[in-house]
Amino acid sequence: MQFFFIRSLALAALLGAGAAQAAVPYVATSAFTLQGYDNYPDSVVDVLADTGRSITLGLPTFAAEISAGRADSLQDPDSAAVLTSFSQALYEIRLNEGYRITGVKFGGTAQGMRLDGIGDVPGYAHNSLWLDYDIWHWDGDKGNVQVVNLEGQQQVGLASRPLAIDTQFSIYLSGFANMLAYGGYVYDPLGGEPTRSQSLADMNLRDVTLTFTVAAVPEPQTWTLMLAGLTALGAAAAGARKRA
What we know:
Elements: H1 2-22, E1 26-28, E2 32-36, E3 46-50, E4 54-58, H2 60-66, E5 70-72, E6 80-95, E7 99-115, E8 123-136, E9 142-148, E10 152-159, E11 169-183, E12 185-186, E13 195-196, E14 200-216, H3 220-243
Antiparallel strand pairs: 1-2, 2-6, 3-4, 4-14, 5-14, 6-11, 7-10, 7-14, 8-9, 8-11, 12-13
C-alpha cells in the first residue's frame, strides 16, 4: 500500500511538472526557436507571419493583462478611483544556424477614453500607458514609449536600432497602464446634499506583436565565391585599363 501511495505521489508530481512546462511557450520558426519562462505567465505566443525575412509573433495574454478595465469615480466613496495593470514576459531566442536578427519591433494598438465630469460639475480623468523592451545580449538594445491622456485609438510601437545578433539572446517585455478618475463636488450653500460628478478613464492595449527582422548569414563557401568573383572583376578591370 505504501509503495502505491508513493508511486501515486510521484506520478502526480510528474503530471504537475508536465502541466507547468506545457504552459511555457515553445515556438519554432524558420529562423529561430522561442522559449518562454514559466515564472512569466503572460508569455503565450502565436505565430502570425513567417516569411523567412520577417517573423511576427502575437502576444494575446500580454495585451489582456494591460486591458484591466475602467476607473469610475462613482464606484469609490472618496470620489477618486485608481486602476493600474501590469504585464511582463521574458523569452529566450535560439537562432538556427545560418541566421541572425537584424532588428526587433514591439507594440500594439492602444485605446483610451477620458471623461472629465458631467455637465457643470467639474471632474478630472487621466490615463497613461508605458511599454518597454530590453534585449539581453552583448549587442543588445532597450527602449520605452509612453502615451498620456489618450482619447481614441492609436498605434504604439518601439523599434530597436540595427542589430547583428547571431547567437542565443533573451528579450524582456513589460507594459504598465494607469487610470485615475476623480469626480468633483458642488456644495449646496443651503446645506443640501452636494452634487457629485462622474468621471471615467480607461486605457487598454490590444493586437500586441513582436516582430523580428531576420537575415541569412552567408556560409564560408559563399564568401569564398564572392571573393573570387570580386577578384576576377578587379583583374578584368585592370587588364582593360592596360589595353587602353
